[in-house]
Amino acid sequence: MSDSFFTPVSGMDLPRFAGVPTFMRLPHLTLDDPRSSDVDVGIIGIPWDSGTTNRPGPRHGPRQLRDMSTMIRAQNGATNVRPFEALNCADLGDVGPNPADIQDSMDRITAFYADVKAKNITPLTAGGDHLSSLPVLRALAADSPVGMIHFDSHTDLFHSYFGGTMYTHGTPFRRAVEEGLLDPKRVVQIGIRGTAYDTEDLDFAESVGIRIIRIEELFERGIASVMAEARDIVGDQNTYLSYDIDFVDPTFAPGTGTPEVGGPNSFQALQVVRELAGVNIIGADLVEVSPPFDTSGGTAFLGVSIMFEMLCILAGNRQR
Amino acid sequence: MSDSFFTPVSGMDLPRFAGVPTFMRLPHLTLDDPRSSDVDVGIIGIPWDSGTTNRPGPRHGPRQLRDMSTMIRAQNGATNVRPFEALNCADLGDVGPNPADIQDSMDRITAFYADVKAKNITPLTAGGDHLSSLPVLRALAADSPVGMIHFDSHTDLFHSYFGGTMYTHGTPFRRAVEEGLLDPKRVVQIGIRGTAYDTEDLDFAESVGIRIIRIEELFERGIASVMAEARDIVGDQNTYLSYDIDFVDPTFAPGTGTPEVGGPNSFQALQVVRELAGVNIIGADLVEVSPPFDTSGGTAFLGVSIMFEMLCILAGNRQR
Amino acid sequence: MSDSFFTPVSGMDLPRFAGVPTFMRLPHLTLDDPRSSDVDVGIIGIPWDSGTTNRPGPRHGPRQLRDMSTMIRAQNGATNVRPFEALNCADLGDVGPNPADIQDSMDRITAFYADVKAKNITPLTAGGDHLSSLPVLRALAADSPVGMIHFDSHTDLFHSYFGGTMYTHGTPFRRAVEEGLLDPKRVVQIGIRGTAYDTEDLDFAESVGIRIIRIEELFERGIASVMAEARDIVGDQNTYLSYDIDFVDPTFAPGTGTPEVGGPNSFQALQVVRELAGVNIIGADLVEVSPPFDTSGGTAFLGVSIMFEMLCILAGNRQR
Amino acid sequence: MSDSFFTPVSGMDLPRFAGVPTFMRLPHLTLDDPRSSDVDVGIIGIPWDSGTTNRPGPRHGPRQLRDMSTMIRAQNGATNVRPFEALNCADLGDVGPNPADIQDSMDRITAFYADVKAKNITPLTAGGDHLSSLPVLRALAADSPVGMIHFDSHTDLFHSYFGGTMYTHGTPFRRAVEEGLLDPKRVVQIGIRGTAYDTEDLDFAESVGIRIIRIEELFERGIASVMAEARDIVGDQNTYLSYDIDFVDPTFAPGTGTPEVGGPNSFQALQVVRELAGVNIIGADLVEVSPPFDTSGGTAFLGVSIMFEMLCILAGNRQR
Amino acid sequence: MSDSFFTPVSGMDLPRFAGVPTFMRLPHLTLDDPRSSDVDVGIIGIPWDSGTTNRPGPRHGPRQLRDMSTMIRAQNGATNVRPFEALNCADLGDVGPNPADIQDSMDRITAFYADVKAKNITPLTAGGDHLSSLPVLRALAADSPVGMIHFDSHTDLFHSYFGGTMYTHGTPFRRAVEEGLLDPKRVVQIGIRGTAYDTEDLDFAESVGIRIIRIEELFERGIASVMAEARDIVGDQNTYLSYDIDFVDPTFAPGTGTPEVGGPNSFQALQVVRELAGVNIIGADLVEVSPPFDTSGGTAFLGVSIMFEMLCILAGNRQR
Amino acid sequence: MSDSFFTPVSGMDLPRFAGVPTFMRLPHLTLDDPRSSDVDVGIIGIPWDSGTTNRPGPRHGPRQLRDMSTMIRAQNGATNVRPFEALNCADLGDVGPNPADIQDSMDRITAFYADVKAKNITPLTAGGDHLSSLPVLRALAADSPVGMIHFDSHTDLFHSYFGGTMYTHGTPFRRAVEEGLLDPKRVVQIGIRGTAYDTEDLDFAESVGIRIIRIEELFERGIASVMAEARDIVGDQNTYLSYDIDFVDPTFAPGTGTPEVGGPNSFQALQVVRELAGVNIIGADLVEVSPPFDTSGGTAFLGVSIMFEMLCILAGNRQR
Q: In the Enzyme Commission scheme, what number(s) does this protein have (chains A, B, C, D, E, F) (predicted)?
């Protein structure tokens, strides 16, 4: 049973549109607050999009995700999990990026997550563009490579962009494999689709053993079958969960920079996460929510709904 | 065959973007107009949202539903029903609410619908938030309790909000059961989903015999199976039909105050109504359309498309 | 010089789009936090719009005003005032309203502001609809009536609405005069315009000695002349400042429920506040910002820019 | 004193967002209704934009103007005129255009306005693109040419478009002069600005004696001076008033097809009409409101505010 | 292998948001450019909507489709086709319509496509409203009637509108059958749905042998089965492909003038085209994209994604 | 008289919404096209926003500015200048930035503009964020420092951001002075306003002799007086013109990243440029247009209207 300090504000006490918007109406703590040592899961924003090669905006993601997250209540209607009772959850604030310096920003992020890890807090990240995952992995997988379940319409496995630029949102997992942060044989990428420059990313994936499940295969085999395979691939060792909102069809999630039509609907977007029960998740992220391309906030609301499902998975796996 | 006075204006005579927008381009009558005694189905707006606990806006619903309804033509393409030939339909205008007094507003609504009932007009209501259904039921079920088929992502069966407030859009059907307006054993709620405060509503439903079909069950069993069960539950006695637009996935219906992701698509939104042929419907409503959250009007267009399906069901059941 | 605890986060340290959005990036305190006794000016949200007779939405005002307020920096470029150095400022959170009970909500607000007053904190309020000002005045003017400088396109002096409803956003100052909270001879209303139902409000104003300055007079005489008169009217006694965002032309402030065209521009919107230096302001509000009618956030940004000017006036008057 | 049948619905009786939206909440009559013989001013929509050479949309103008017009109350706050008491006003509905046949549409419009004129009703038109004015003038000026006060950023005096097309929204007044509907010496065009193809329109104006007052002259001399000259130009004979919403700066009126930056603000937009007291106006129009380019409805609200000022001028000139 | 002159600009060289937006970043040629004789497939815009009977806007379609098309890359991820290597593709610019003269516009379009055909270029058209298809067919089927696969929610087979108007976007294929441009026995229409005026179009279809597959049949049988039948119907002779974006559900494609709810999703929107491999397509169009009703650009992005699938079909059939 | 090759497409020949959108419908040339040697003024896009410290988006500026620029015609209505007859103008395309590498991007820009300068082409730039001006000045002022007239609400004279980052859109002119590109005594900044971090920028300006004219001074003295002083400051030597769209009030130009309320209106936005006749302008830019924050396109339309005024100034100064 969690500590009552960590109970979110109820909509019955304070209407859901009211109050300072922290993630899921949880208490906002900084890492130097003494209560941070009691936190099991820390929700963290990375308001950063310097790795974006196409349309920008994910720097605004954490703000809008917090805003929409006050619509989330205490209990998962589908699975009956009550994550805030199972775990001490808190909003740990945003990592402050340097919008005009990519390397400095990555260093700041890695340093922040190293602290999080040192406190034995499982981080649930609200991005930020997908390059965010790299500095996070540098902290979480500093000791040994981890597996990864990755929902996306792109592999993000490219070598470089624009004539040799190594750090963009299209390259994080290439770097992570090269740096020994990911064990490619324990990596599965689900939902890949859309037009492609070439097959350089796919060739790399094949060469190192990353399993790619395209959208056509997902729709044909069904979610249960594909997710069973995904669970097999990562096994019971440490696994990172990375969810690019552009995995979802852009009609359901227009607020993103590099949409690809023909993706899953919102029910499927939740289902794939529900199928992760039992996976040994040591950190998760939801990235590429770009509010300027979604003034209705629907993308962010779907995003936090997905984050709540992630939290319920963590609650099932790590109860106090 | 209906009276030609009640024939909607054709888009071939006057383009569909033209003219004063009444519901489905029908004549606008007030209840004291002598022709109102010839009306079979009256479409009525309840521009009211004082029961809203979250995001407001349904007070603007009837206006935008009328606007988009001029896109509706004479014949149901799927079922070939021509409702305006089968029945005399009219736009009976809006019930004038008191935006700053909930009890006064409920009294005004009940009085209006008592007149409608007295004239033997079947009301098809455009809400308004879901509290609207309660004063309508007070008029329609004044003599004896009715059954209800209820599409929604929420049960609206809570006891109270904000420390004891009994009348909100989250409580109408709790009140309706308590007041003997609904026969709970003849009530079925379909599409329930999303996060929950607690299970107080579900416990009440179980205790009185209301059947709840969650979205997972709807998707798993399919619409035909679930709707067959729904028809069985209400049987052939008087039944009210209440359709909260948030039953539909918020990507298809963003213009609503309390969306829950992971719902039916627009085809399914129509299908569930088409499955109601033969049910003894004595009144129906489409509620919670909130135009300020849907500037495109897509939610209202879906809403009136659903209302047209309702009208076709009524036309099948009650021909002159 | 203020306490460094109360220094807002700088955009140089954390980019302005980052972080949990409190008002002007100030610390968020509740009234039971011991540090609240050091607060000079408390910024408070009233997320409430039950008094709205027309288009709703101000319940969302405080949330969006907080969001846009992170664009505000430390120094007033026009007057060189640095309010956060002059005063200890804090975000005191929102008063929790009861969206479905007007009287209960007013009682909650009055109780909250009585606490604020008891702690000798000057409240700067982000509404909420204009009815919010009444329960605030009940706390602040509990002992003796105050004067008021009121910017608005409406007088809000009507007796009642909808056949006798006494509490709406069109009646707060009628009630405040009746309840002895306002000294009508020390009240001036500036910017009145638009179409009118009748002259019942103007007749009342004349009968009790409230000075009304229509927009035509404001534009003809100029802001300096009109504001000099306003300062004379309120003199050096306790004065409340109430600013309805619909004072400003709706092109500059579309996000409001009852716009009237032909108002001041954004420069003039700031100028009128800058002319208040030296007025003995014991509380101020900025009301009627309705985010659903302004998806760009421009209205809220103008709103917080006005609130910053108010804060600078308070800083000039009350330095630690 | 007007007939109570023609009194608009009050917002005190029915909130302004409620009810079927007729123009200014007036009764909706067709010309074959016997009560139409009692009408002094008829407000008429022309939902037509086939003459548009640039961005379309004015076909939707009357619908949105009606919608926003329910925000208009009974009395002009600036001039104290109460037009609905001075005159019998009614919504005469829309002229049904043929969207795919320009000549047919013009014939329909002229026929409708000939009926209006025959009933001695002064028409106040909500367009529609500016070509609408030509068929209206064909009816109103059938017997003898009229003068015109014309607010616009364009002269609409071109000979033809696209290699010889004579009927577009850039040519109506060239045709009207050629057809003897306008007396060019009694025509004044105010607000002209923006980039130009060439000076063919200006050369024509000069050759026939039309007075053109560019925006620079309007701003330099001021509205009072310019409008005094305008009143002199038209004198006391029959005069048509034509107001293209693109006269106003596009920030205040974005919902239009051919905007030109650098125009009057909303206060000035009303002022120019108020200066028309005493002019012998035999018909007026407000054209080129294009709702698809203004989802907020602000353009339409400004448009109906202008129409209300026109109505007040008519009420001053023609009291029952 | 195509000529390198015809290779689109890569997003790796120039980011996809940069540069003058031609269709799919191809070279822009006019028909009098000598290089046009090397073109295999020419993408052509028809910025025209004079045939629209309902909401306008497709005149803006080509502009926004070009804009969004710069998000398309070189390779089809699902089928691995690289169309720009298989064929010489170019942007041939827009046919200049006369917005105020339907007959003149149709003549201009037919003349342009006659030139295209004379140069042995296969045209891929971005409309424009659906009337555009008629003048295109007059050029392409000048010698002998062609078959047609037609995706739409409407048949566009009506005789006339508004009392006898023969040329609107609801009549092109009636005219095309009458003019001997289409062989009705080789025409299949897929996706038909929504409310209907009457059955005049269906009666005509039946009388001449056009096969209509309603949306209910498409969903029940599945895409593979239906498309197999479609391929049988057109056989291996010359076939035109016409795709109205309103075939797709309006939530996925809101930017269109006459939406009908309950249609295919974006994955299915692509699937139906992928099933056309091997069909002898001599020209294709994607029509009725109306940007003013879709400010997000999502409809146009789906539209160009569909056009890319069409191009891949052409590339499979006609390799250099 | 200019070469007819460089004549923009007329809206009379091709409607303004049609065609591939180049800047002002001019021919699109690359610098290696032989005709580039005949160009007098080249309009160039810099689709880049890596220097943005706040809200992103100017990378999309050139695309939307091109789109809206097709609304510009041949002649300046206010000054009668016909710039395309006076000068050979062309769209020189976009400089390809590297979105993930600031230094690389600056080098690419400087190299491009060095070529432009070598060809004796005067560049008119469409940004891009304000950091763009620095690499442009490195090319144009390579030989000797230039003066500058700078319209903005910010000085962009800060030393560094985020703990030492030297290259952001808040620092370009500090760097330009340090690098000897600008002669500070010949620099004037007009329109400065809004809240400030501190006075470090103003202190620097004072220390080097840059003249700052705040918005209050501009409004008080009037545009004619201020611009006369500006002309005196720069004298008749080489002068760069830099116009940040946030100089204009954000209601008129919402599409920008760091708005400050209380600025000039759209008429004044043009006026200040018209006052530059005779100034020896060797290059000009219009920066910080951020389309994601202005879906209506109004900001871009104002932006290109300003660019057209710039072009007319250049045409007055440099006629062939």
A: 3.5.3.11
Residues of D in Cβ contact (< 8 Å) with E50:
50, 100
Contact A252 B254 (CB under 8 A): no
Those residues with Cβ within 8 angstroms of residue E99's Cβ, 6 or more apart along the chain or in another chain? D52, D53, D162, D168, E48, E50, E59, E105, F15
b/e map of E154-184 (b: 16 or more CB within 10 Å)? bbbbbebbbeebebbbbbbbbbbbeeebbbb
What ipTM does this complex have? Answer: 0.96
How far is B22 from B9, CA to CA, in rounded Å?
A: 10
Q: Which helix (H) or strand (E) holds C186?
A: strand C182-192
**H-helix or E-strand containing A187?**
strand A182-192
Buried b (16+ CB within 10 A) or exposed e, E278-301: ebebbbbbbbbbbbbbbbbbbbbb
Length reported for chain E: 320
Q: What is the mean pLDDT of residues A236-242?
A: 97
Nearest Cα neighbor of E135 from E63, E208, E237, E127 is: E127
How many residues belong to chain D?
A: 320
Element (H, E) at F239: strand F239-244
Q: Which two tokens stand for residue D278?
A: 């005493």
User: Are F281 and F240 contacting, i.e. CB atoms less than 8 angstroms apart?
Assistant: yes
For the question of whether the overall pTM of this predicted structure is more than 0.90, the answer is yes
The band of E302, judged by pLDDT with boundaries at 50, 70 and 90, is very high
Residues of D in contact with E111 (CB under 8 A): none
**Which residue(s) pair with B281 in the sheet?**
B239
SS3 C171: coil
Tokens of E149: 């696969």
Integer Cα distance of D310 and D302 in angstroms: 12
Cis amide leading into C128 (omega within 30): yes
Q: Phi/psi of residue A122, each to 5°? A: -85, 120
E contact residues 155-194, partner B, Cβ 8 Å cutoff = 161-163, 192-194
- Cα B124 from chain centroid (whole Å): 7
Reading the block at residue F207, the tokens are 């220390």
pLDDT at F319 exceeding the cut of 60: no
On whether the CB atoms of residues E130 and E79 are closer than 8 A, the answer is no
pLDDT in tens, D141-178: 999 999 999 999 999 999 999 999 999 999 999 999 99
Cβ contacts (< 8 Å) between C102 and chain B: which residues? 100
Which residue in C119, C264, C261 sits closest to C190, CA to CA? C264
Nearest Cβ partner for B12 among E55, E197, E250: E197
The rounded distance, in Å, linking the Cα atoms of F307 and F213 is 22
Q: Confidence band (pLDDT; 50, 70, 90) for E49?
A: very high
**Is E195 close to B266, i.e. CB distance below 8 A?**
no
Strands F89-94 and F122-126: unpaired
Coil, helix or strand at residue D108: helix
Domains (ranges, CATH) in chain B? 26-319 (3.40.800.10)
Residues sharing a CB contact under 8 Å with residue F227, sequence separation 6 or more, in sequence order: F272, F275, F276
Q: Looking at CA atoms only, how far is residue D269 from chain C in angstroms?
A: 8
Strand segments (E) across chain D: 41-45, 89-94, 122-126, 146-151, 182-192, 211-214, 239-244, 281-287
* Closest partner CB to D100 (pick from E51, E59, E292): E51
Instruction: Note the helical H segments in chain C.
Output: 61-69, 83-86, 102-118, 133-140, 172-178, 200-208, 215-221, 223-234, 266-274, 298-317
Contacts of residue C164, defined as CB under 8 A and 6 or more positions apart, other chains included, come to none
- Predicted pLDDT of residue B294: 92
